Amino acid sequence: LLMDWINTTLKEEHIVVKSLEEDLYDGLVLHHLLENLGSLKLDVDKLALTEKKQRQKLSVILDAVAKCLQLEESQLKWSVESILTKDLLSTLHLLVAIAKHFQPTLAMPPNVQVETITIEVIIVLIFLPVDPRDLSQDLVWLELGRKDDAFDELFSRAPDKLDAVKKVFLQFVNEHVAKLGLNVKDIESQFADGVILLLLIGQLEGYFLNLRHFFLTPASTTEMV
What we know:
Radius of gyration: 27 Å
Largest sheet: 2 strands, antiparallel
Number of strands: 2
Main location: cytoplasm
Subcellular location: Cytoplasm, Cytoskeleton
GO molecular function: actin binding
CATH class of the domain at 1-102: Mainly Alpha
CATH superfamily of the domain at 1-102: Calponin-like domain
Structural class: mainly alpha
Domain Calponin-homology (CH): 1-103, 163-225
Mean pLDDT: 81
InterPro entries: CH_dom, CH_dom_sf, Parvin
Helix content: 40-55%
């Protein structure tokens, strides 16, 4: 309904919205929509190509919406950050508020409820004392869950700490696969065919792995894959 409404409103400007998250986050469509609906002249550029420009543009647009709709800050169910990060729920709240104000006859369905799921990102820090005589200087850290891959950081910034990290992972692997009578000494060679990896997955938290689903002794690349 909202996409049809936007596309109908902006038809003469040849703007077509196919996704509320992907097409509204940078402020361009919102800019055109507000100027078309409320004859609002916003003092921002039509195109904002950088994130900084988009943030500034959205700030001006959302301030104009709040003033036009006479909303206090505590009443706002959206923000520059939530729109910029493509938060669908915030985008819907914003569009519904604009539609109710500028086109109250729009047949909005009543009693709409949205179920949201909050995903918690867990960050794991591994500290490895390389030299027990100097714990303050030689600490290897890995942060899992960052935007940049932690191992890329390790390779580029602290390649000399790589062996210490491998040692920790070997201890972790052997702690679990030892129950199967296995012992891993070299990660690169013994993980190459996927067998140890699958058996490790099977051991973690009692997960049942059907041995018929893969080759315990793969003899070809196809069987490894």
